[in-house]
């Protein structure tokens, strides 16, 4: 029993992204990245913008997420995230333009600019580009 | 009595109208199906969020949070959700009427009312009548995005925490089924989370960061989700209302066409009769 598997679900407000048995999942917690294996104690944490890495077999699968909650129970693990995109489905070109736009937006520093939101948008764009290139 | 040509022209134009309304019905039906799928798709997330929030609340002795704080109601924010387009029966006017009533109700009790308008219809109506509109979101239903719900929530959440408003209500069309939609008034703030029945199988979690920080985050997410559901519901209700309205219109048009065809036949017959009697009397005059 080297790698026991457990049930994982990744849900967003718009759809159920993933449901299945995995042997490990790595997630971007607010206090640093962490990895969950089977048999973890009940655990509740907030997620940052970052990369979710799940392992079903030998090859890991990557997702770009933009923050949410992560719950570990004895019965399984659930990630509730605002958005989640498979790395393989990210349009790198589009992600790169979005990043440029977000940066230009921040650099322009308009009067009505909501800095907090602009920075969040930039972080999301950066993350998508990064996750796509990690594939 | 209308001439034969006039009747024919009317039949042609009403046939056109019936074609258009029927096409609109088909489009609305397709959009309704998609809107219903969207509602179903939120369920896994929403249910889980509710359970987690429930678990947390059952663990916290005395939940306190700015969003749970009840105050004397002096400033009210009403979120009025309509559609961007007409031709959907009383869908928009119901929301407008209920919003006006709520607004008058609060004003009568000495509170002042600000509006957040979602959908072009309410925005046009209330901005013309000089209501105090904090913000408006128009043309969002064509391509509904979760981010819109987040933006709306962000706006009134901040106002609430800053104590500029003491109560937030949303007025929208609730999608019960394809044939039944009702206008609902729901209180969004202050939040009144339900304390769930004790779940015996549940053991407390390890929290990271603290319990309170997570509670705060979840409350905010819960609010986003409520707003998102409102938008999806309103969208589905709009399509359903339009579908029904267009079906009605097509039916009425077809009834009118049937009636006009009868009139046309009668007019045609009269014309032929007149012609024959003219010919007959002409022939009789020649013989005589």
Descriptive account of the structure:
The complex is a heterodimer of chains A (135) and B (288). Chain A is α+β, with helices and mostly antiparallel strands. Chain A contains 2 helices and 8 strands, in the order ββββββββαα. Chain A is elongated, with a radius of gyration of 16 Å. Chain B is of the alpha/beta class. Chain B has 5 helices and 6 strands. Chain B has helices spanning 4-59, 91-108, 120-128, 146-161, 211-287; strands at residues 75-81, 112-118, 133-137, 167-175, 181-189, 206-208. A 5-stranded mixed beta sheet of chain B has the order 3-2-1-4-5, with helices on both faces. The chains are: A alpha+beta (135), B alpha/beta (288). Chain A binds chain B through residues 9, 11-16, 29-31, 41-46, 68-69, 71-72, 74, 78, 80, 82-83, and chain B through 38, 41-42, 44-46, 48-49, 52, 56, 146, 150, 203-209, 213-214, 217-218, 221, 224-225, 228.
Mind summarizing the main beta sheet of chain A? 8 strands, mixed
Q: Uncertain segments of chain A of ≥5 residues (pLDDT<50)?
A: none
Mean pLDDT of chain A: 87
* DSSP helix fraction of chain A: 25-40%
- Class based on secondary structure composition and strand pairing of chain A: alpha+beta
**Largest sheet of chain B, if any?**
5 strands, mixed
> Could you say which overall geometry of chain B the principal axes of the C-alpha atoms support?
elongated
The first-to-last residue Cα distance of chain A is 29 Å
Q: Oligomerization state of this entry?
A: heterodimer
Report the portion of residues of chain A in β strands. Answer: over 45%
> Largest interface, per-chain counts?
A-B, 25 and 27 residues
Annotated CATH homologous superfamily of chain B: ATP synthase, F1 complex, gamma subunit
Round the mean pLDDT of chain B to the nearest integer and report it: 91
Rg calc of chain A: 16 Å
- Proper CATH architecture of chain B: 3-Layer(aba) Sandwich
**N-to-C series of helices and strands of chain A:** EEEEEEEEHH
Instruction: Output the number of helix runs of chain A.
Output: 2
């Amino acid at each position: 029993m080297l790698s026991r598997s457990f049930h994982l679900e990744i849900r967003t407000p718009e759809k159920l992204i993933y449901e299945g048995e995995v042997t490990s999942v790595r997630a971007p917690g607010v206090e640093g990245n962490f990895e969950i294996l089977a048999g973890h104690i009940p655990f509740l944490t907030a997620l940052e913008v970052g990369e979710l890495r799940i392992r079903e077999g030998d090859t890991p699968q990557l997702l770009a997420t933009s923050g949410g909650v992560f719950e570990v129970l004895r019965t399984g693990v659930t990630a509730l995230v605002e958005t989640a995109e498979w790395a393989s489905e990210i349009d790198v070109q589009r992600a790169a333009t979005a990043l440029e736009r977000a940066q230009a937006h921040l650099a322009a520093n308009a009067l009505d600019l909501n800095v907090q939101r602009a920075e969040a948008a930039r972080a999301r764009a950066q993350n998508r580009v990064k996750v796509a290139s990690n594939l | 009595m209308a001439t034969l040509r006039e009747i024919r022209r009317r039949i042609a134009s009403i046939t056109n109208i019936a074609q258009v309304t029927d096409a609109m019905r088909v489009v609305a039906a397709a959009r309704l199906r998609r809107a219903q799928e969207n509602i179903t798709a939120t369920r896994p997330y929403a249910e889980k969020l509710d359970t987690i929030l429930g678990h947390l609340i059952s663990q916290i002795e005395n939940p306190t949070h700015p969003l749970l704080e009840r105050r004397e109601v002096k400033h009210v924010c009403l979120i009025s959700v309509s559609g961007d387009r007409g031709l959907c029966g009383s869908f928009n006017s119901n929301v407008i009427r209920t919003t006006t009533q709520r607004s008058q109700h609060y004003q009568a009790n000495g509170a002042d009312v600000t509006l957040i308008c979602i959908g072009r219809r309410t925005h046009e109506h209330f901005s013309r009548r000089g209501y105090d509109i904090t913000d408006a979101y128009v043309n969002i239903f064509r391509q509904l995005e979760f981010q819109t719900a987040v933006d709306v929530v962000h706006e009134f959440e901040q106002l609430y925490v800053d104590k500029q408003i003491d109560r937030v209500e949303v007025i929208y069309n609730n999608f019960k089924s394809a044939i039944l939609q009702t206008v609902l008034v729901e209180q969004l703030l202050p939040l009144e989370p339900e304390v769930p029945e004790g779940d015996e199988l549940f053991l407390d979690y390890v929290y990271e960061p603290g319990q309170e920080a997570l509670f705060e985050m979840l409350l905010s997410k819960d609010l986003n989700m409520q707003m998102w559901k409102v938008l999806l519901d309103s969208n589905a209700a709009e399509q359903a209302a339009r579908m029904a309205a267009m079906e009605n219109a097509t039916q009425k048009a077809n009834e009118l066409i049937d009636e006009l065809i009868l009139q046309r036949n009668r007019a045609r017959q009269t014309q032929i009769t007149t012609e024959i009697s003219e010919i007959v009397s002409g022939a009789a005059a020649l013989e005589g």
